[in-house]
Write a structure and sequence with these properties.
By secondary structure, the chain is of the alpha/beta class. The protein is built from eleven helices and ten strands.
Length: about 300
């Protein structure tokens, strides 16, 4: 990756008070439109079986007012293709995902490359070699950058070690970088690392925003409180609910558009400048965010 001074990286925000609207979930929308994401490969299978559906979802988010589209690359690392598709196809699928988002975005919004954790997003306990993590993420980052993404969204991160490694691998990439982590209690990452431990990473000069995703709306303020002195803008894209102790999905206030938007108004007073939707939300939430925060564009 070519080293680039951070001062030459395009600014993510046009003003300190601007609120940028992210898109919403791909998997939820694929399911709503009849595509089975419950198979190995999850949403990545749609790149092979239903690319036109991915394009349609991207276009709907653009029409709803999204200012940043996220590539459907959450599961296109080579290791995530094992068992259902040729891992050697990882680069091609990543490039295809970027192309589909870019075509839908046109000149109306930017395209950010999704960089996910390598393991199960909710089961971060498995120990892996740092060299293997670095190899997999370096390949993904290079593929996204070569495909021409406008920025990188290091998302749904559950372990400090992996999040820190990916962020440091983006050094010199010449694009804005956003880090979003998962917390179940509003205090720690899923590996038990206190959210406050992300402070040094936030202040490293490598990130343009930091925050959380794939969390219920009810704990977002707790997360933001832990990050209040991080010194950079925040990102939030929350779920419409949460998993209960039986592993069953339960809707919460996040499923109600008015309440979700009301929460978002509060979040912006805590420095949130990137807003979108995660699991269970849909195009309608993005449209409501666009309407609510239009004055900041």
């Amino acid at each position: 990756m070519v080293e680039t001074s951070k001062s030459t990286v395009p600014s993510l925000f046009s003003s300190p008070d601007q609120v940028l609207i992210l898109d919403g979930p791909m998997g939820t929308e694929l399911t709503k439109r009849g595509f089975d994401v419950g198979r190995p490969g999850w949403s990545a299978r749609a790149l092979l079986e239903a690319p036109e559906l991915i394009s349609a979802i991207h276009r709907d988010y653009v029409e709803a007012g999204a200012m940043i589209l996220t590539t459907n690359t959450f599961r296109t690392h080579a290791v995530n293709l094992e068992g259902w598709h040729d891992p050697a196809e990882a680069g091609r699928l990543t490039r295809l995902a970027v192309e589909l988002a870019r075509e839908a975005a046109g000149h109306r919004c930017r395209v950010f490359g999704s960089v996910s954790p390598l393991g199960d997003s909710y089961l971060p306990g498995e120990a892996v070699e740092p060299s293997w993590l670095q190899e997999q993420h370096t390949a993904m980052l290079n593929e996204l950058l070569e495909a021409g993404v406008d920025g990188l969204l290091v998302e749904t991160q559950t372990t400090f070690r992996e999040a820190e490694m990916i962020v440091h691998l983006t050094r010199g990439c010449g694009r804005p970088v956003v880090l979003s982590v998962v917390s179940f209690d509003g205090q720690t990452m899923l590996d038990g690392t206190p959210l406050a431990c992300l402070r040094e990473l936030a202040r490293s000069g490598l990130l343009d925003a930091i925050g959380c995703n794939c969390v219920p709306v009810e704990i977002v303020e707790d997360v933001l409180h832990q990050m209040q002195d991080f010194g950079i803008p925040k990102v939030v894209y929350a779920n419409s609910g949460r998993m209960n102790s039986l592993g069953e999905w339960e809707e919460s206030a996040g499923a109600l558009l008015d309440q979700h938007v009301a929460f978002a108004r509060i979040w912006t007073t805590h420095g949130v400048r990137l807003l979108g939707g995660c699991c269970g939300t849909d195009v309608d939430l993005v449209a409501n965010f666009a309407d609510e925060f239009a004055d900041s564009f």
